[in-house]
Fold BLOC-1-related complex subunit 7.
Amino acid sequence: MASASSSSARHLFDDSKKRLCARVGVNVNNLGSVARQVVRGSKTNEIMHQTLKNFTQVDVVSDYSNQNLQKMTLILQHVGYQYDVMEDSVNHLDYLKEQVTAMER
């Protein structure tokens, strides 16, 4: 009886050992997967940081572009005013030429 009990215990031990090895093997495979995810995660963090940095730069450039566009609109408006003044001056010159011609007669 002692031998049957010993054989049964050994069989149970071997079975437990095989199951433990199988689970450790699965966990090692999972560990590799987790390690890859950690590496990807760290790269994702770097990518997110770079993306945020690029977005911030684009936002600053966009603000400068908007300010420059507003300045150009203001300059265009002033050039329009100057054109109107010069056109009025040319019209006055024509009037003055007519008056000088009338005075010479």
